[in-house]
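Our consortium's second objective concerns turning raw sequence data into structural hypotheses that experimental partners can test. To show how far this objective has progressed, the report includes one record in full. It was chosen at random from the queue rather than selected for favorable results. The single chain below, 230 residues long, was entered without modification.
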Amino acid sequence: MKQKKPVLYTELAYVLGMLLLALGTALMELADFGMSMVVAPAYLLHLKLSPALPFFSFGMAEYLLQGVLLLLLILLMRRVRLYYFFSFVTAVLYGLTLDACIALCSGLPGGGFALRAVYYVLGMVVCSMGVALFLMTYIAPEVYELLVKELSAKWRMDVGRVKTGYDCTSCLVSVIMSFMFFGFGHFEGVKAGTILCALVNGTMISAIAGAITARFEMKDALPLRRFFER
């Protein structure tokens, strides 16, 4: 008899995805090897504006930029869904969680290259786990993940390939923003680690998602799927 898989509820996947994504991003910020290409534009916006506006946190930059991306998604899909606006709610919750995780990680010990490399690699893996979990829930993910999910369905392409294409585009935008904000020859937020993420993040997410679905059976704990997807 085939052994039954343990259940992972999609609502729990949503909560875990948000926590892991925020924690991973905070670890990468602490390492200072360059942010993930997905969040690098928001991070650069935070670095540029926070000296004049101290209240303008990384988390706030995240959900404001995702609001702009949501408008772009609506234009690309040529439709408006209530589900899309739930995605912005997720972005706001994520921004608050990110600021809390950054505050917690600020208490971690600093160190040289080796310790920073550990923080960075750990952060990159944890972020990939968070994104993979977000893609498995019916609750609207962040606008970043929503954009990948919707476009991969529209174009009937593997989500990993669409994710890699989006990441590379975001990386290029981040480089341009860095030049505009801080001048040529001085990179902020976009460093060697950013390029590494752009190349491997999509593949990592696909591998982690495959491992999760192979190990767990995904089920809804609450009868809310129709409410979120109508």
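The partners drew two points from this record. Residues 82-105 form the longest helix (24 residues). Residues 11 and 137 are 7 Å apart (CA to CA). Both points have been shared with the crystallography group to help prioritize constructs.
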